[in-house]
Amino acid sequence: MKELLEFIQNNLQIFYIIILATFVGIEVIKSIPAVLHTPLMSGANALSGVVIVGAILVMLHSDPTDYVALTLGFIAVVLGVLNVVGGFAVTNRMLEMFKKKK
């Protein structure tokens, strides 16, 4: 627990940036028209794939005894995979709406 508190104290500015980016992202996503949602979802899937690869690389290069880095990397991989799978499911469902009915 002491390591986690030290990590947060040493990287406090990064946490502020993440919080600010979250609020900015929410505001940007709210203002996107429905017509652009499918192409942007595909782009988000590609970005999530990059996050997954980056998290795996960070986990590979981290010290095996650094449990904080390994835990955060694992959480990033799991959330990235969930985002990619969910994004592809939503994109596929939206594209099915544009196909002609038989």
How does this model look, in words?
- This protein has 102 residues and is mainly α.
- The protein has two domains: 31 residues; 64 residues.
- The protein contains four helices and no strands.
- α3 runs antiparallel to α4.
- The protein is elongated.
- The mean pLDDT is 84.
Q: Sheet with the most strands? A: none
Any idea what the shape is? Answer: elongated
User: How many structural domains can be distinguished in the coordinates?
Assistant: 2
Mean pLDDT: 84
Low-pLDDT runs of 5+ residues are none
Strand content: under 5%
Distance between the termini: 60 Å
Structural class comes to: mainly alpha
Give the helix level as a range of percent.
over 70%
Number of strands: 0
Pattern of helices and strands: HHHH
Rg is: 18 Å
Number of helices: 4
What is the gist of this entry?
With 102 residues, this protein is mainly alpha-helical. The protein has helices at residues 2-10, 12-30, 37-61, 67-97.
Describe the secondary-structure layout.
Elements: H1 2-10, H2 12-30, H3 37-61, H4 67-97
Helix pairs in contact: 3-4
Membrane topology: Multi-pass membrane protein
GO molecular function, one term: proton-translocating NAD(P)+ transhydrogenase activity
InterPro entries: NADP_transhyd_a_C (IPR024605)
